[in-house]
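Sharing in case it's useful to others searching the archive later.

Someone asked me privately for the predicted structure of Dehydrogenase, so I'm posting the question and my answer publicly. Question first, with the sequence:
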Amino acid sequence: MRAVVYTTAWELELRERAEPSAPVHDEVMVRVRATGICGTDLGIIGGEYAAKPGVVLGHESAGEVVAVGPSVRHVQVGDRVVIDPTFHCGQCRLCRTGRQNHCQRKGETETGVSADGTMAPLHKTTERFLYTLPAHVGFEEASLTEPLSCAVTGANQLRLRPSLRTVVLGGGPMGVLYAWVLAGLGLTGTLVERSAARRELCREVVDRRWTVAESLDEVCARHASDATPLDVVVDTTGRLAGEALTKLSRGGQLLLVGLKRHEVALDVGGIADRSLSVQGSIDSLDGSFATALHLIASGVVPARRLVSHRLPLASFREGLALVGCDVGARRQGPPAGALKVVLQP
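And my answer, the predicted structure tokens:
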């Protein structure tokens, strides 16, 4: 089968790979019908997020079951499913203390990072990481379950109330999904995106009670009498934490979810004196994957509207270029008028 294989930074290709072996025990083979291009993929390609050389990329995916092991009880051949890529063993110290998203086996089992992912026609997983899709949910929108689950996880880390002044930095798919999750919790706020083309896309897909702005300064100008006007900031870019900290009100909260190598000098005394909270978040946790699927299936989050482009797997380089990743030139730039790009193996 043909799969998108990562070798090292800026080196990846569509390569012939052997099909996964037949399922045994509780294993399930899934024919991948949709797999999204994710910010993590871009980080891996650009050398900002470590991945195993030779790994098949991709982890946001849905498809149909084509084979099952003899111990499988809850799915069967022909079932339409979405794949939870956040493997956890359930037995290590971190799993047993409620940190399954940081399972100590993650270094060998993380889908699309340390274990083969879903940018391929076939993917093998185990039964407990599959969720059956309702008949009305398509593969493309289902592939957004995983990033939405990350947004649910992150929102659960915050102390929220509807009256808090809220900003989400970054108008990519993750930023839009965070805006929807926060809107569902009653918060109104602003999504900040510096790309004009993507700002227009964001205005079409965010909750109508949310606004879209070009910069953090533009948002703060609305509260000119308050030097530190923001209560909650979610930084999906991985680049704006330092600026965001200077805009937080006393008792303000900063959630960091962008996987970028970016260092910021911290005034520890100032953080303590102003009662600021800085929190990181990654992956699904505490049932957030099931919650995300429910939000999509119930129409609370209109995931289908986020998919701006659909391409065959062989056109993965074109898909990457649409989100600003030029593999040939080895550079990451602004997205070319795309939001979520879904590949179809």
